[in-house]
Amino acid sequence: MTRLLRSAFVIARRDFTATVLSKTFIFFLLAPLFPAAMGTLFGGIGARVAAQTERPAVAVVAPQAEFKQIEAAHDEMTEALGDGAIVKLVGYSPEPDLAGQEKRLLANRSPPIRAVLSGSLDHPRLVGSLADDPATVGQVKLLIERAQGRDADQGPEIDVSDVKNVSGPSQSDRVTTAWGAQAILFFLTLMLSTMVMSQLIEEKSNKIIEVIAAAVPIDAMFVGKLFAMLTASVLALIVWISAGALLLQVIKHGGSGSLPPPAVGWPWFLLLSVIYFAMNYLLFGAAFLVIGAQASTAREVQTMSLPVTFAQMLIFAFAATAINALNSPTALAAAVFPLSSPLTMMARGAEQPEIWPHLAAILWQALWVALILRFGAKLFRRTVLRSGPRLPWWKFGRA
Q: Is the domain of 72 the same as that of 137?
C-alpha cells in the first residue's frame, strides 16, 4: 500500500509539473471564456427554473370588504396589462398584534412576501424591502386609487417603511445563486475532465506509458494521473475565482458584496464548492480516464466520449430539478444518486442553511469515489497495455 501511494505521488507530481509549467497552461486558464458562450444552449433549463420560482407577492392585511375592492382593481389591471405585469396579491385578515403579523408575513416563504399592505384605504401603510423597487410602490398606489375610484392626483399618500432582509427577494436570489453554481460546476467538470484523455492518448501513442508502467503499478498510474489533473484544475479554479472577484470589484458597485449571499454563507459555500468540484471531477474524470485507456487515437476518443458527454448533460438536467424544490422526491433522488449528488448539494447550500446534510453527502460521495476509482483502476490495468488486434467484447474478461 505504501509503495502504491508513493508511486501515485510520483506520477501525480510528474503530470502536475508538466501541466502547470508548460507554455500552454496560459491558454488552459483562458479556456472558460469559450464555453461561457455555450450557456445559451441551456436557456430552456433556466427558463424552467425561473418559471418554477414563485413570484414574490404583496400581502394585504385588511378586512374582507376592502380586500375585495383592491382585488377587483387588480383584476381589471391584470386583464388590461397581463398577469406578469402586475404585482401578485395575497389577502390576510387583520390580527391584534399587527407588527408581529407583518414580521411573520415578511418571513414567509410560500408564497414569498415582498411587502405588507396594512391600514385602511384612506391611510395605507406599506412595509417591506422596497428601497430598490419603486415599481411595486407605484403599482400598489395605483391599485388603491382604482379601488377608491379616484384619479391619480386625488389618491392617498402611502406610508412606506423599508425593511431589509425580506425573505421574498432573498429566496429568489438564492435560487439564482443555486442555478449559477450548478451551471459553473457542470461546465468546469465537462471542460476539465476531457483533458485527462488527451494526455493519456499522447502518452500511449508515444509509448511513454509502457515505460512508466514498467516502473510503477498500473493502479498507481491511474490514481496519480487523475489526482494530478484534479490538483491542476483546483489551482486553475482558484485563479478563476480570484480573477472573477477582481473583475466584479471593478465593474460592479459594491464588488462581490453585491452578490446574493447563499444560505450557508460565503465561507462555507466556497469551501463546499471546492469539495463538490473535486468529488464531481473524480467521478467523471475516472470515467474519462478509462475511456482514454480504451482508445488508441483521438478519433476513437471523440467517438467514445460523446455518449458520456450526453450523459453528463442529462445528469445536469436531473440535478437542476432540485432547484427551489429541495424536499421533493425527485430532488432527494438526485441528492442520493452519486453522479448528480455534487450538483444537487450545491443547490441545497445556496438555498438552505443546514450544514449536516453536506457532511453526510460528502461521506456518501467519497464512498462512491473510492468504489469508482477502484473499478476504474482495475479496468485501466486490463486495457492500458493491451496491444495487437482487439478482442470481441464477450472475450474481454479473459484478456
A: yes
Average of per-residue pLDDT across 256-272: 78
Could you give the angle at the alpha carbon of 186 between the alpha carbons of 39 and 21, nearest 5°?
A: 100
8 A C-beta contact, residue 245 and residue 255: yes
Yes or no: say if 111 and 57 are a contact pair by the CB < 8 Å rule: yes
Range of the domain at 228: 2-33+169-398
Contact 351, 174 (CB under 8 A): yes
CA-to-CA distance for 23 and 25, rounded, in angstroms? 5
d(CA 352, CA 264): 7
Q: Which three cell numbers stand for residue 351?
A: 438555498
Reported pTM: 0.63
Average pLDDT over residues 343-363: 90
- On whether both 178 and 216 belong to a single domain, the answer is yes
What pLDDT is recorded for position 47? 45
Q: What is the residue whose three cell numbers read 448539494? A: 345
Q: Is the peptide bond before 111 cis (omega within 30 degrees of 0)?
A: yes
Q: What is the pLDDT of residue 168?
A: 45
